[in-house]
Amino acid sequence: MHLATTILAFLLGWQASVYGAAQDLPFLGPGVVAVLLIVNTFTWTNPLPQLRVVCTFGVVGTLVESVMIRAGIYVPAESFRSQLLCPLWITAIWVQAGLSASMLARWTPNRLLVAALLGAGGAAIGYPLAAWLGAIRPLVSPLVAIPLWTLSGAALVPILLRISTKQNGQVMKP
């Protein structure tokens, strides 16, 4: 996929997930992301490493979000709360990020600062926007929540992009 297509696909998956959560349509985002995953899988020349990256993003993202929820940083929309892990729509956003990883890795090779800035910017905009739309509700002051979200994005994106570029010891290609 081209960079513009990758960005648009990510925004589509993010918007479907957040809108679905805010409008009591919990499977809208995961459904859209599942379709995007299937379409992407057919375009990859070597899907197994790509799927590992997508799964890594999904698992790590789910764990980090679940810790933030359990730590009382924010809560997802009431109807999507689970006992242990974050809701599926949040996992879908991380899976969508994993789908975008190979393109972003090629666009930001060995540029961890750029990747950190993308992660920080995305988190600094995405979480407050999700709160404004009603998909999440922060439980701490914005002076605490926004820097926490921003720092988590700044740390996670470079780490996860490094994983996507080093999968099996080689740069991944779609």
Structural features, described:
The protein is mainly alpha-helical. It has one domain. It has six helices and two strands. It has a two-stranded antiparallel sheet with strand order 1-2. The N and C termini lie close together (8 Å). The C terminus is likely disordered.
What are the main properties of this structure?
mainly alpha; 73% helix; 6 helices; 174 residues; globular; disordered C terminus
Give the SSE order as H and E letters: HHHEHHEH
Classification by helices and strands: mainly alpha
Beta-strand residue fraction: under 5%
* Number of separate structural domains: 1
Which residues sit in consecutive blocks of at least 5 with pLDDT less than 50? 168-174
Number of helical segments? Answer: 6
Ends distance: 8 Å
Question: Could you write a compact summary of the structure shown?
Answer:
The protein has six helices and two strands. By secondary structure, the chain is mostly helical.
Chain-wise SSE layout:
Layout: H1 3-22, H2 28-43, H3 47-70, E1 74-76, H4 88-107, H5 112-133, E2 136-138, H6 142-166
Helix pairs in contact: 1-2, 1-4, 2-4, 3-4, 3-6, 4-6, 5-6
